[in-house]
Amino acid sequence: MKNGFRNSPLWFRALNQGWNGTYLFGTKSRLDKDDLIRLARKTTGLNDLGRDFNDQPLELLLKSVNEEANLHPIGRFITRERFVSLLSIRLRAEHFFKKYPQILQQELCPAWIIVGLQRTGTTKLQRLLAEDPDHRVIPSWEVINPVPINLGLYDLSPDHHLTRPPVYPHPNDKRISVANTSVKALKLMSPGFFAIHPIDAMQPEEDILMLDVSFLSTTPEAMMHVPTYADWLEHTDQSQAYAYSVKLLKFMQWIRPAKRWVLKTPHHLEFPDLIEKHFGEVHFLWPHRNLAESIPSFLSMVTYNRMIFSSDVDERKVADHWVRKIGYMLGRALDYRLKPGNDGKFTDIYYQNLIADSVSELEKIYQLNGGLTPEIADCFRRHELEHPHRKHGIHQYSMADFGLTEAEINRNTSRYGSFISEKYDLSQAKKIQ
Asked: Which CATH superfamily is domain 10-428 in?
């Protein structure tokens, strides 16, 4: 196939093979709830995970990972480090919440929430909107670690709401170097990934990682084969994850306030009701693209993701899981949108238009905010010149890579297809990979 799913670097394969051979000597990374919590507490020197911490999601996720994911040694190591990091974030957050109760007494800033499916232009849209100085986004360095690692750097006086740090992030903030290391590691492990989703430590990323801190998100099933956990998650109330996500957002705006949040993750398609309940004043931006293009593109990204964690990746299983899941997510979003009074809470963005003439497409959004000024439009154009489409190469993919047909996609997404065809004829739009 055209894709380089299985063309992982030689060093990567050799290290996995060699490491696997040493498992008899006890080198297998341990994925155990109590051990991970103990290590996070030791790493941070903190003990309180918060009264609202629920360890059941972590326990069920670990069971699924250990029994179903078939991770290779590097995948197990990355997963262990990542889970310890998520628990450490929670420990550090609780430190600040207790010391500065005014953090949680704030009102969350209004938000524009980008809820489109994966591979529909959501990243481009958010990164353009991030150029508006009135907007607050979560750059990659901050989304990986929303709470500082070196606590004293922002451990300011109780009247902090009057005394902002003059520079954010602080030049000595360890989170920057952590993010840069993560980007370099991903390039080494999966060079082809950046043609799909270019990652930059200083550019915005998905706020789904705020939900990961509660171990209630679709991130694990995008990274590995965890069907038992994924099924449990789909039938579980995720209010606690959204409530804690708001706490983390309040912490971030406490340090650096702004007029409006601009957030995005496809995960939110399932939960616009929870967004509205917990986030307050929101407006949804919904990018759309021909599903025969966006779904295979996303399946390709998931496959690259999973190859970082396991050598046992079946492209057809990836398609079986996610084509159904995408249909379910779209159905949940439509259930909410089609309720009386809700359609006006959405602005539709079309991928082909966003690529061809982004400023014209963004003008639709800025009608919500008094119109797009020439100064902000110039910011958008400058960003596009600096970050051209396909800067990191052409992402090649096809439905055939996954044994998938357009008819199969249509069967799972027919309701959405009918809805969007009334608004815009995506089938006539030019294909842009």
From this structure: P-loop containing nucleotide triphosphate hydrolases (3.40.50.300)
